[in-house]
Amino acid sequence: MSTAVEVPIMENEHVKEFLSIMQDNGKDTGNITELLSYVTTMESQLTKAVEELTSMRRELAGMREEHDHPVRTALEKAARSLEAAINETRQRLNEIKDKIVDGCKQAVTSFKENGIAALNGIAKFFRIKPALESLRNNLQGDIKHDQAAIAKIESIGAQYHSAGMHLRNVGRALSGKEAITAIKPNGKLAKLAAAPFRTEMKCLQNALKDTNRAIAVLDRLDRAVQQKAAEQAERKPSVKETMQKLQKQINAERADSPAPAKAKHRGTEL
User: Fold this and answer.
1) Degrees (nearest 5) of the Cα angle 235, 240, 242?
2) Residue 126's pLDDT band (boundaries 50, 70, 90)?
3) Tens digits of residue pLDDT in 2-31
4) Rounded to two decimals, what is the model's pTM?
5) Mean pLDDT, range 171-178, rounded to an integer
């Protein structure tokens, strides 16, 4: 079972400890806090969608009229299926939360072992981009499924509405009345049938926006690390440059030092 499910990500003890260490050492926590806020919002949206679908199923179960109506049965089935799909997405999000918590644990441990320098490249502790990209693909697929279902329901509703209007016009013609030509929107039945799919689609679209924003935060963190590494590489002299500098110092010291006295040759004096 996912451990991150127990408490909101911002209330997790390891996350709070990591943020506290960052703040105490003058490190910017803006990107990490932003990332956590997107995860929190996604979690709230998915929870809300499940609650709405559960409430919808309760209302359908309490309907007295047309207890065995095929539309009602289809709606109950659709609500259960969509609820299961959202719960699966929530599980994916919980796995991402667990990875974030593990990243905070590793960052804290590295700080305690290596000091403040360990906080310079925090992006390496949060390797969740592949999981977020997988979640994004899943959300996009589910949204397309909802859009297709809604389009199908509206098409069937329009055909049913058109057929009903045609029959009414036949009756009006037999009564000597003028035909109805104005096309009205789909009726209550079509709206009711599309409701579960619209509920899920709205939730998933919002979650998709936050997923893209979270990925953008990770990209910023990666760019910051790469930029810092590039700056350090520019400041750090190469081995060849270091050797050349050292040789120049040796040559300068030799030039400044007095020449050694020449040794006298010993010989037999006449």
Assistant:
1) 60
2) confident
3) 444 457 898 999 999 999 999 999 888 899
4) 0.69
5) 49
The 8-class DSSP code of residue 8 comes to: -
Name the residue among 123, 32, 136 with its Cα closest to residue 93: 136
User: pLDDT (tens digit, 9 = 90+) per residue, 80-117?
Assistant: 888 888 999 999 999 999 999 999 999 999 999 988 88
Tokens 């925090």 locate to 122
Q: Report in angstroms the alpha-carbon separations of 182 from 28, 161, 162, 203.
A: 61, 12, 11, 34
DSSP 44-81: HHHHHHHHHHHHHHHHHHT--TTTT-HHHHHHHHHHHH
- Asked if residues 226 and 121 have their Cβ atoms less than 8 Å apart, the reply is no
For residue 118, the one-letter residue type is A
Q: Under DSSP, is residue 187 helix (H, G, I), strand (E, B) or coil? A: coil
Question: Which among 95, 93, 57 is positioned nearest to 203, based on CA atoms?
Answer: 93
Short-list 143, 126, 120, 105, CA closest to 38: 126
- C-alpha 8/C-alpha 162 separation (Å) is 50
Q: How many CB atoms lie within 10 A of CB 206?
A: 18
